[in-house]
């Protein structure tokens, strides 16, 4: 199962010990067969290669002759196959833009609370008027 391809020294590039640790972190896994470990490592490598090549081909990487994080995040957001990675590869935003978003949410929350309090006061007044 440890065939070498293309004159490589190692059958897989990813460290098998780290993959074993990740696999054992699942409570359902008690032992890991060496073949299953190798196949998981190889499948992971192939997946990463596919993600990188797809992102390069469909992103701006061709223009710059480079694969960028934004290419990967765009692929995760736009391609249905990779949408499960959208939380792991979010689009980058500037800190200043993020702070403005937080400030806006905070203001919107205050406005919502203020409106809610006003409505409660109006409801109490309506009840008082109806009783008297």
TrEMBL record:
Domain of life the protein comes from: Eukaryota
Subunit organization: Heterodimer with POLE3; binds to DNA. Component of the CHRAC ISWI chromatin remodeling complex at least composed of SMARCA5/SNF2H, BAZ1A/ACF1, CHRAC1 and POLE3; the complex preferentially binds DNA through the CHRAC1-POLE3 heterodimer and possesses ATP-dependent nucleosome-remodeling activity. Within the complex, the heterodimer with POLE3 interacts with SMARCA5/SNF2H; the interaction is direct and enhances nucleosome sliding activity by the SMARCA5/SNF2H and BAZ1A/ACF1 interaction. Within the complex, the heterodimer with POLE3 interacts with BAZ1A/ACF1; the interactions are direct.
GO MF assignments: DNA binding; nucleotidyltransferase activity; protein heterodimerization activity
Domain Transcription factor CBF/NF-Y/archaeal histone: 13-74
Compartment(s) of residence: Nucleus
Bias-annotated ranges (Acidic residues): 116-132
Broad class of the protein's primary localization: nucleus
Function: Forms a complex with DNA polymerase epsilon subunit POLE3 and binds naked DNA, which is then incorporated into chromatin, aided by the nucleosome remodeling activity of ISWI/SNF2H and ACF1. Does not enhance nucleosome sliding activity of the ACF-5 ISWI chromatin remodeling complex.
Protein's recorded name: Chromatin accessibility complex protein 1
Gene of this entry: Chrac1
UniProt record, GO biological process: chromatin remodeling; DNA-templated DNA replication
Region of interest (Disordered), residue spans: 105-132
Any one of the GO CC terms: CHRAC
Organism expressing this protein natively: Rhinopomastus cyanomelas (Common scimitarbill)
A Pfam family recorded for this sequence: CBFD_NFYB_HMF
Keywords on record: Acetylation, Coiled coil, DNA-binding, Nucleotidyltransferase, Nucleus, Phosphoprotein, Transferase
Gene3D superfamilies, per the entry: Histone, subunit A
Cited InterPro entries: CBFA_NFYB_domain, Histone-fold, Transcr_DNA_Rep_Reg
